[in-house]
Design a protein that fits this description.
Length: about 375
């Protein structure tokens, strides 16, 4: 996730000097075409259309003309890499160039803008990559109008909106009976619910790392801890501003958001608080794990130094005895003793035994 952030910053630096409102994609390059999908909810049921161009979506700008009664249109745009396509969609639906600029700038922080005739919401969709065991992010932009909701996704399907599509196309439930504001809530709710899935997998990685630290920590664990800390920091960066967005929405005062939807937005706001609390808990755990790693390394070093110190201490008197009897004086009483050599060895062995006994009585040999 960190590499993706710096890559995005690099692309934004290359955009410097361009005038405000310039629609230039700053994400990763893609070769696939932009996919348009419209789900039309009306009194006669739900139908799905696949427009072949932005101009073919012009009928959705005035949804009442194609619905013929109560209902709404959800237009999903998969792919932001085609800046020309996004610009043409902006002309069709009357979106401000600054809004289009924010849509294709995939490094945006979650935010909410009131555009008089529309609400513009930016948030981050997260997914956990099982192979690399990292968290990937994708920017999602939502434009809420009177009877229309437009969503812009950076990547192809495989998102967390699949179940919502199925429920809408099934033609039942509150999704079809309510307006596009409730669908806006449902989409954000799906994104936030997936945060819990990502946090669960991240929590499993943290527990696994904690077990390794308690058994046999290695330098590789230190690198993993720092990687997890970076991911926790990026999660906080995405969730904290989203909480502010939902706090503004749940306070009400927007004509496009029905009072009945405010209750659900308040519940969703509580979910973001839980996500933030979990992230903060993970950050504290990772900080504690870093301290635990450093403490274990220091403990192992101390144990090694204790063993070496004991060995050195034992050999100090032995070195003294060996050097004493290795002096080249002609008249030393013990030099002519028949069993002097064995006596000296016995004294050395007694010295070692005595010192070991003393060290054990003092408790200095514990764990050595």
């Amino acid at each position: 996730m960190g590499a993706a952030m710096f890559d995005s910053l690099h692309r934004r630096v290359r955009k410097r000097g361009m005038p405000p409102g310039t629609v230039t994609y700053v994400g990763r390059s893609q070769s696939r075409p932009v996919a348009l999908e419209a789900i039309i909810v009306g009194p006669d049921g739900v139908r799905r259309e696949l427009p072949d161009s932005p101009e073919a979506c012009a009928a959705y700008a005035d949804a009442s003309g194609i619905i013929g009664g109560p209902g709404f249109v959800w237009l999903n745009v998969d792919g932001l890499h085609d800046s020309d396509c996004v610009t043409r969609l902006g002309r069709v639906f009357g979106l401000h160039p600054l809004v289009l600029e924010d849509i294709v700038h995939t490094g945006q922080r979650p935010k909410l803008d009131d555009l008089d005739d529309a609400l513009f919401v930016v948030l981050k969709m997260l997914r956990y990559d099982e192979q690399s065991r990292t968290i990937e992010d994708e920017q999602v932009s939502l434009v809420l109008k009177r009877r229309l909701l437009i969503t812009f996704q950076e990547k192809a399907h495989g998102d967390v909106f699949g179940e919502l599509r199925k429920r809408l196309l099934a033609g039942g439930g509150r999704l079809c009976k309510s307006g596009p504001d409730y669908l806006l809530y449902a989409l954000i709710d799906a994104v936030v619910d997936n945060y819990f899935v990502v946090l669960e997998r991240m929590g499993e990685d943290i527990e696994e790392m904690e077990e390794k630290l308690l058994t046999a920590p290695t330098p590789g664990e230190l690198e993993t801890i720092h990687a997890l800390k970076r991911e926790a920091l990026f999660l906080r960066k995405f969730v904290w501003p989203l909480r502010e967005v939902l706090a503004r929405l749940e306070k009400g005062g927007y004509e496009l958001v029905d009072e009945a939807t405010i209750v659900y937005l308040r519940d969703l706001y509580d979910h973001t608080i839980q996500v933030m609390d979990t992230i903060e808990t993970f950050r504290d755990m990772l900080s504690g794990m870093l301290d635990l790693y450093l403490s274990n390394v220091s403990l192992k070093l101390n144990e090694t130094m204790k063993v070496l110190t004991i060995i050195s201490t034992i050999f100090i008197p032995l070195s003294f005895l060996a050097s004493l009897y290795g002096m080249n004086f002609k008249h030393m009483p013990e030099l002519e003793t028949e069993y002097g050599y064995y006596v000296v060895l016995g004294v050395m062995a007694s010295t070692v035994a005595g010192m070991l006994f003393y060290f054990r009585r003092k408790g200095w040999l514990g764990g050595a």
